[in-house]
Write a structure and sequence with these properties.
alpha/beta; six-stranded parallel sheet; globular; binds NADPH dihydro-nicotinamide-adenine-dinucleotide phosphate; NADP; amino-acid biosynthesis; shikimate 3-dehydrogenase (NADP+) activity; Shikimate dehydrogenase (NADP(+))
Length: 286
Amino acid sequence: MPDTKEKCYRKEFITVFGSPVDENPTVVIMDAAFKALGLDWIYNAFEVYPQDLETAVQSIKALHMKGANCTIPHKVAVMKYLDHISDAASIIGAVNTVYLKDGETYGENSDGKGFTKALEEDQIPITGKNYVLLGAGGAAKAIAVELALAGAGRITVVNRSRGRGEELVELLLSKTPVKADFVLWDHSYELPADTDVLINSTSIGLYPDTSSPDLVYDSLRPQMVVCDVIPNPPQTPFLTEAQNRGCHTLNGCAMLVNQGAINIKLWTGLDAPRDIMKAALLKEFQ
Ligand code: NDP
C-alpha cells in the first residue's frame, strides 16, 4: 500500500530575541527537550537590535512561529508590540516569553514562575514564609512578584541602589498582598533570624565573576533555604558558603530549566522532560 499520509517538510520554529544573544544557553535546553519529546522543532537565537524589535515581533505572526523568548534588552520594550499580556507579567512589567494563539501574540513572564516551580520541586513551601531577596533588578522583580502572588509572608528587598529597591517594595505593597520592606545594602548584611529563604538575585557570581554577596555569613542558619539565580557556574561560592553552614540550597539551573519547561508547555502543550533539560544544561556548564 502506498503511504497516503501527506508529508510536511516545514519545521516548527521558535526563537530568542536578544542583544547580545550568542552566549544564551537556552538553545541547549530546548534542543534536548524537543529531541526527548520526539519533536522535529527548531529553536535558535536571533541577534535583534532595539530598533528592529517591532519587526522581529511582527515576524512571529507573519512566519506563523510558535513563539519566542525575549532577553536583554527587550523584556520591557516587547510589551508594547503584543496583543495580550498575562496579569503577572503586567505587574512585573516585563515579558520573557511570547506564544501565538489563534493568530494573536500573548506575553508571559516565566522567570519568577520558574523559580517558584523550583521551590515546589524541592518541596519548599511558600505560603507565609519570610524571604530575603538580594537585588532589585529584572530577575528579582519577577521572583518577588510570583512569591507574593503565591502567598509569601514577607519579602525584604536588600539592594545596593535605593531607587530600584524602594520601587520594587512599592510595587509589591501596591499590587500584591505581601508585606515588604527595603534595606539599603551599604554594609555586610546580617540576616534576620526569622528568615526562611535567602535568594541571591543579583548578577554577583556570574561567570567569570567569583565573588559572593556581602553578607554576615555566620547569620545563616541550617534551617534556612538558600537560592541563587546564577546558572553559570551552577555551584557558586555563595551556595558553597550556605552548604557549609548546613543550609538546603537551590541553584540557578533549577530556575532556568523550570522556566524553559513552562515555556514548552505554552508552545507545545506537552510536559517538558525537565531532568533531560537539566542534564543538558549542566553538561554545557561543566
Ligand atoms: P539587572 O541588571 O536587572 O539587575 C542586577 C541586580 O544586581 C541589581 O539589583 C543590581 O543592583 C545588583 N548588583 C549587580 N552587581 C552588584 C554588586 N556588585 N553589588 C551589589 N549588587 C549588585 O539583572 P537581572 O535581574 O536581569 O539579572 C540578574 C542575574 O540573574 C543575572 O546574572 C542573570 O544571569 C540571572 N538570571 C537568571 C535566570 C535563571 O533562570 N536562572 C533568569 C534571569 C536572570 P543595583 O540596582 O544597585 O544596580
